[in-house]
Amino acid sequence: MTPLSENMAQDYLELVVDVVRPFVEPDLALTSETALEGHIDSMAMVQITLALESRLARSFGPTDIQFDHFESIGSLARQLSSIASSRQ
Fold first, then answer.
1. What are the pLDDT digits (tens) for 50-81?
2. CATH, residue 69
């Protein structure tokens, strides 16, 4: 990973942590490895996706964000980074 892409990945990781925080237990440590399964439900996934669209000022396509991208904080951040890279 280049320094620019490392910075982008870190930015997306921080964004995901910020957006996910209200949907999980307050004492849950949120790192890139934090699993989201068992901590959020399908409604939270929809709300998180909408919040990410709002924060990023873009709409996601139907396959941009899928269930498996919510495996962990890191997997969701990596998907956002991938979407951003593919649209540049």
1. 999 999 999 999 999 999 999 999 999 999 99
2. 1.10.1200.10
